[in-house]
């Protein structure tokens, strides 16, 4: 404890909150670097004694009330990765070509899986250095900068804030996509039955359907306890599974010849393919919480391991859906494969409604994480009215996501934009930077001929290229669709 003499009160002041404010640290964090002009650290920087690092086993220090087995973790990984993105994969193949899309999907899936490996392995190493049982994504970024080269220490909080910011933007962007997705599917079914109706307007603008969702979205997302959302998650999984089964039934009816589809769509469409594919494949936001809650965490990235098994299944299913979806519908492929299903058949209509309800429930689960990050960072601004403040912030953010969805109702470019902007950073760039910083000044940390550095330079360059080209093409498509 740091004590100071207060000349006004003529007494020693050692209040914890005063100390934490002055030295800009949280109670659960270590004040590593000076903050008030001194060049001396407040205490010894962790992670500099390599031999001591090796003696600490973070897995033995994890105390979990309900640890998950390997099979439980695999199921949660599949649930977290198999989202609405699978319905957009045929559109990704439309922008890549039939055969090129197949190869590129497995290539991007392999790169995304490798980057998750890098993040988890680096997190394990940093847990040993910091002598902490587990670290989340943002905490791993902060720990890498704290235990890396001294010049990087001052950027540790910025690294944590950037990761949290992109997680929030990514997940709220997904929420916006969900609103567009739900509204378009409901509109198709409603238009079919409204064309002969005298009291229900036919061919209403999809934005009106989005606005009508607002009361339902607010009522669902005022639920603050994740436990009460679990039944909706189970129902959503059941609906998605049933809906995808019926969708495959339609895809395999009257399949055209592969010669009728373009094997390669052209270079000008590749950025859109990249954004859509990485949006669909990248489940990095759920990886660290799952690994941190495992009974046997060393099985997560082993061989074959939970991660490799789960991602192989996910990538294969996405490639399968994209290939046959584009083969079936060709140039008529929509932003969601369910929109291509027959409008005049009850079975096709039921799929649209089932998937719409499932994605609506998924909105609440997706909204939970960014809201939790935002609330943890702003709750200290409010005194006794914390409940009112939290509910107000929830409603405000829901309205913001609705307004963005109304402003950009074009599903395809919107998905590509979210993937290109957020997941390029979260899935490719940040894990590579974290590994370089964490191992920069460790003995042989970057490997022979600095191959770790050059490998990560390639991944960062690939991520930046995808971010710039994907964002540019998606924004242009959004603007052109409005015109």
TrEMBL record:
<feature type="transmembrane region" description="Helical">
    <location>
        <begin position="272"/>
        <end position="290"/>
    </location>
</feature>
<dbReference type="Pfam" id="PF01490">
    <property type="entry name" value="Aa_trans"/>
</dbReference>
<keyword id="KW-0472">Membrane</keyword>
<feature type="domain" description="Amino acid transporter transmembrane">
    <location>
        <begin position="67"/>
        <end position="476"/>
    </location>
</feature>
<feature type="transmembrane region" description="Helical">
    <location>
        <begin position="99"/>
        <end position="120"/>
    </location>
</feature>
<keyword id="KW-1133">Transmembrane helix</keyword>
<feature type="transmembrane region" description="Helical">
    <location>
        <begin position="302"/>
        <end position="327"/>
    </location>
</feature>
<feature type="transmembrane region" description="Helical">
    <location>
        <begin position="452"/>
        <end position="475"/>
    </location>
</feature>
<feature type="transmembrane region" description="Helical">
    <location>
        <begin position="347"/>
        <end position="370"/>
    </location>
</feature>
<feature type="transmembrane region" description="Helical">
    <location>
        <begin position="206"/>
        <end position="223"/>
    </location>
</feature>
<dbReference type="GO" id="GO:0005774">
    <property type="term" value="C:vacuolar membrane"/>
</dbReference>
<feature type="transmembrane region" description="Helical">
    <location>
        <begin position="161"/>
        <end position="181"/>
    </location>
</feature>
<keyword id="KW-0812">Transmembrane</keyword>
<dbReference type="InterPro" id="IPR013057">
    <property type="entry name" value="AA_transpt_TM"/>
</dbReference>
<feature type="transmembrane region" description="Helical">
    <location>
        <begin position="235"/>
        <end position="252"/>
    </location>
</feature>
<dbReference type="GO" id="GO:0015179">
    <property type="term" value="F:L-amino acid transmembrane transporter activity"/>
</dbReference>
<feature type="transmembrane region" description="Helical">
    <location>
        <begin position="414"/>
        <end position="440"/>
    </location>
</feature>
<feature type="transmembrane region" description="Helical">
    <location>
        <begin position="391"/>
        <end position="408"/>
    </location>
</feature>
<protein>
    <submittedName>
        <fullName>Proton-coupled amino acid transporter 4</fullName>
    </submittedName>
</protein>
